[in-house]
Amino acid sequence: MVTTVSAALARRIALAAQGFGAPIRSGDSPPLAQPGLRQLAPLVSKLGLLQIDSVNVFERSHYLPAFSRLGVYDKTELDRLTSGTRIIEYWAHEASFIPVNTLPLLRWRMNDFRAKSLANGDSWANANPAMITWLLAELADKGPLPASAIEHESNRRNGPWWGWSDVKVGLETLFRWGDLVAAGRTRFERSYGLPEQVLPAEIRNAEIARPTAIRELISISARAHGIGTLADLADYFRLKTADALPAIRELEDSGELLPVSVGGRGADGWGKPAWLHRDARLPRRMTATALLTPFDPVVWFRPRAERLFDFHYRIEIYTPEPKRVFGYYVLPILLDDRIVGRLDLKNDRQAGVLRIQAAWAEPHPPADAPARIAAALRETARWQGLTDITVAPRGNFAAALAAELHHT
Predict the structure, then answer these.
(1) Are 182 and 147 in contact (CB under 8 A)?
(2) Are 267 and 290 within 8 A, CB to CB?
(3) Closest CA to 238 of 257, 219, 273, 214
(4) Element (H, E) at 335
(5) pLDDT tens-digit profile of 340-384?
(6) How far is CA 113 from CA 119, 125, 133, 201, in A?
(7) For the residues of 91-146, what is the DSSP string, one character each?
(8) Which residues of 236-256 are buried (b: 16+ CB within 10 A; e: fewer)?
């Protein structure tokens, strides 16, 4: 039986599955009352992953989802979690922090990376077998190291400043293959170690058949979505839809996924099959105020963001400045179950200022949007240790937001 779910309920289901709707901590909360490992670990498990991105103009992306959902917290607590053995890095939805138990579910991806690389006669791996052997021996002898700590005549950048040395290419190749694993980060630089130096035996020795692994990844994805289409559920772990569909059918047969139709016909309908996770919450209302990183699961799959929120979003970091529409590092603004605008933020750490370089509202924002967003920005500044907020006169929401911040 196919059940019809309204588009509004689908939005609330999706947000609840992503951890929104619970009370959050403010910067006035005593330090011991702020979220710590006991709250952060379940959140990462609920989300399934935190995407990693190097852009630091406002804040590293993986710190934002916890702030958006839990409120003010100490980032060093997340660093503790991601530097231990419970959370580890791999290529999940791009480079991501994932629960360590998820790593064996991606072994087939490691094997695919290896096979593709070695099948290409012109690949770096085929041209540099001695470097690969040397790197493995070096780490076996000295333990986990970042690329910068490995002394080798080939450990220098090639070309522009962002170019990788042969040492870095070799480490990343072995990391993709699973011959090396992430051993934490220092000042955002990844360290690499042999699996036996980092992982418990049960993770190293786990053998999971590819179809079973993909089914488990789809199960994680479906829980994190609450409700989603084939493309939605596949994108979470960057799976091919041809691989994801059989897994969805198996989960449907087992009763874990329930086929639904969202919104019926017309502009509000999704117009394609969808599935509801059997454990998804169906909230009657959603209360949330949050700034979302561009790499938040709520918005990272742009077709889903358009379906859920009628919100067209493209990150413009790589767009030449004269062609940017909204700004350089633009964060969507979530109020309750709507995305009501976007802010181009910059963290001026030296001056202690949160700079809003542009502020844009979607059509028909709620009347209380300026006040609620101003309050969220004050919390954001406090979380970042900043003492002032400035608003540049760019965007159709800049004047209202500046007036609210000045007034309060």
Answers:
(1) no
(2) no
(3) 214
(4) strand 330-335
(5) 999 999 999 999 999 999 999 999 999 999 999 999 999 999 999
(6) 10, 11, 18, 23
(7) EESEEEEEEGGGGGGGHHHHHHHHHHHHH-TTSHHHH-HHHHHHHHHHHHHH-SEE
(8) bbebeeebbeebbebbeeeeb
